[in-house]
């Protein structure tokens, strides 16, 4: 049984405003929930149509399919929904290689980039305040548990860059030095921009090293690579240079 | 005005069976249609709520929003829908670097991989017959026009590999040689597998060179990279080795 107030709370968590107010976010599906349960995140409450997870009885709610449908954002709800506490944001660790996103809007792209950071050992992901919220349910789903292992911090990018003059800053642009020919340090801040407009003018002024993935096809019409694809190519090359 | 039979035809093209029978596929939205119009693909018919494109009057249908809604698969239809002819499949060009997909099911992944092939100058994409259809509307949308520049051919992968013993075959596996340390030719067939199960046993036996993207994070829990992400990293490294 799910009470009206629980339904109201859970469905409200699709909105960032409610997530911020309640310090909670939603995870749907057994696989996703298992991954977050295995981390140091704190479970708030769990709603399932079967007993699957070993969690304290006070937090577990056995519900029927009809109730699950009421609280799910999916057309085909997937057995389980959990609410977890959003952890406190610590001051970001600026050592090593850091990715900074300037206005990335698509939840799937952000989720994929978080997963790439996790794979390539990038511990800190800086996001401009107009980047999509990392606790958006679509981001959580696309990140496949990586969200618990990568520190995502929302802030104004310009002051971070200005206040840390010792950290090299690089950015990805359509017209820049060839990624495979340019010289650049393998650690520092790598900025990637918005899907349609790239890096903002304000931040661009603070990026001395402009890099680009060369195009190997002979077509003039090819769309630029999407920001998540570009992140994959850049992270591969940064780590190769550092390690091999 | 859209006739009942037109509505029936257009909506049926969401299904592969109908696309195969009618040799037609759908493109929605001004941007996507512009890209295909600029290629050598043949327009069958165009349905728009405004006069936007310069196409023969016999193929253009000016319709109202209500009619657009009837033929669109999108919740918020985007001004224009076009049907294009599916071109004849030629025998694949097996020169240079070729990507082969063994059972990729997600339309977004296939569309992204087609776009990556276009960017990195891969002219031929071989797909096992259980790979999602490249004229699926979601694939067409994700490929952003690249579908007109990359030859996608559906076939059984095993005979192609067996019948071309002179072509080096490499594959991406969770446990293989480190991509950045292994020696391999920069041309040949690179096989990538299904999202959940990887490369099938049958094809695996025919892949002598197993490659893997090393994990740089220290977590044991990280999910493997998704197949489109892996394609991005592999294509970057293959092209770097060949050219720089």
UniProtKB/TrEMBL annotation, chains A, B:
Residues 26-90 form the RNA 2-O ribose methyltransferase substrate binding domain. Signal peptide: none annotated. SMART domains: SpoU_sub_bind. Keywords: Methyltransferase, Transferase. Pfam families: MRM3-like_sub_bind, SpoU_methylase. InterPro entries: Alpha/beta_knot_MTases, MRM3-like_sub_bind, Ribosomal_eL30-like_sf, rRNA_Methyltransferase, SpoU_MeTrfase, SpoU_subst-bd, tRNA_m1G_MTases_N. GO terms for molecular function: RNA binding; RNA methyltransferase activity. GO terms for biological process: methylation; RNA processing. It comes from the Bacteria. GO terms for cellular component: cytoplasm. CDD domains: SpoU-like_RNA-MTase. Belongs to the class IV-like SAM-binding methyltransferase superfamily. RNA methyltransferase TrmH family. This is tRNA/rRNA methyltransferase (SpoU). It comes from Gillisia limnaea (strain DSM 15749 / LMG 21470 / R-8282).
């Amino acid at each position: 049984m799910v009470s009206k107030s629980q339904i109201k709370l859970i469905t409200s968590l699709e909105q960032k405003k409610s997530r911020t107010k309640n310090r909670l976010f939603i995870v749907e599906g057994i696989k996703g929930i298992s991954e977050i349960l295995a981390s140091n995140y704190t479970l708030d409450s769990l709603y399932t149509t079967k007993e699957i997870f070993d969690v304290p009885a006070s937090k577990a709610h056995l519900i029927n399919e009809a109730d699950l449908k009421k609280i799910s954002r999916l057309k085909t709800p997937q057995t389980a929904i959990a609410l977890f506490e959003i952890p406190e944001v610590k001051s970001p660790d600026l050592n090593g290689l850091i990715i900074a996103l300037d206005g990335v809007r698509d939840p799937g792209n952000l989720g994929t980039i978080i997963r790439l950071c996790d794979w390539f050992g990038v511990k800190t992901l800086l996001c401009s305040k107009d980047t999509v919220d990392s606790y958006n349910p679509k981001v959580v789903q696309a990140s496949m548990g990586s969200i618990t292992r990568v520190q995502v911090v929302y802030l104004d990018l310009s002051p971070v860059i200005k206040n840390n003059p010792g950290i090299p800053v690089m950015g990805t642009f359509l017209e820049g030095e060839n990624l495979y020919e340019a010289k650049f340090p393998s650690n520092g801040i790598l900025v990637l921009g918005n899907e349609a407009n790239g890096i903002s003018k304000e931040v661009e002024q603070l990026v001395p090293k402009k890099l680009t993935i060369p195009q190997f096809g002979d077509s003039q019409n090819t769309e630029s690579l999407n920001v998540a694809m570009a992140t994959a190519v850049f992270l591969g090359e940064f780590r190769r240079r550092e390690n091999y």
